[in-house]
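Re: beginner question about structure tokens

> Can someone show what the tokenized structure looks like for a real chain? I only ever see the sequence side.

Sure, here's an example I had lying around. Input first:
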Amino acid sequence: MGSKYDRIAAELRQRIQNGQYPKGERMPVETALQAEFKVSLATMRRALDELEAQGLIEKRQGIGNFVRSPRTRVRRTTDRYQWEKDRVRQPETQRRTTGATEYETGLTVTDLDFHADYRTVQADDDLAQVFAVPAGTRLLQRTYRTRNKDEGVPLSLIESYLVYDMISGNPDLLDVSQEPWPGGTQHQLFTVGIELDRIVDEVIARPPTPAESEALGLNAGISVLVLRKVSIDTKGRTVEVSDVIMPGDRTELVYTTQLTRWRE
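And the corresponding structure tokens:
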């Protein structure tokens, strides 16, 4: 059986979910809730802190507690990568109709605001080890920010790295004005003769930095999921490394592993 504030938070969460406290509206004042649940103000505030940490409410200094409008959820599954590979050989007109973000959110191209930046950097020791290249090797760093136009924050913070000399045979791959690229990174690599064999995802959870918290619009207590995606081609080379910072309150990671059956 949970603590008092856990039980209160569960009841308030139910009221939010069933619409008793409409999204965007102000909740009853803390003293009114305190009286209703017959608990101390400290207990009441702890329950509200829990709702804030779950991203259900936001506290506006001097005004009160407001029910947050739900932000776009991202559901990232292992099917995504094969879906991207299957699209590589599709006509450009078909590839332009949708992308990985739409696949993961259910949104459409017209729902999204996309921004990309490119710059060349030198591989630090970490990236040099992952790419199996000397430190200082020239890389193309690509920064991506995609947001729902109805929301003020991006869905995630993405830094992608490619070995410059590996992809420079196609000058379009060095030109940020070509973004958003129809078919994404797998198609970009395909234009220089690279086929992916496998992708390795490594995920950790940690508190956000102040800059990450501000950029993603995170409430206090919300962690981020940090995904390092390493793409390996059919020759065994690491051809892309992508670091993705995802808000923990609206990201779902789904991994399905097919197991080999025992022989009878």
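Each token stands for a local structural state, so reading them left to right follows the chain. DSSP finds ten helices and ten strands in the chain.
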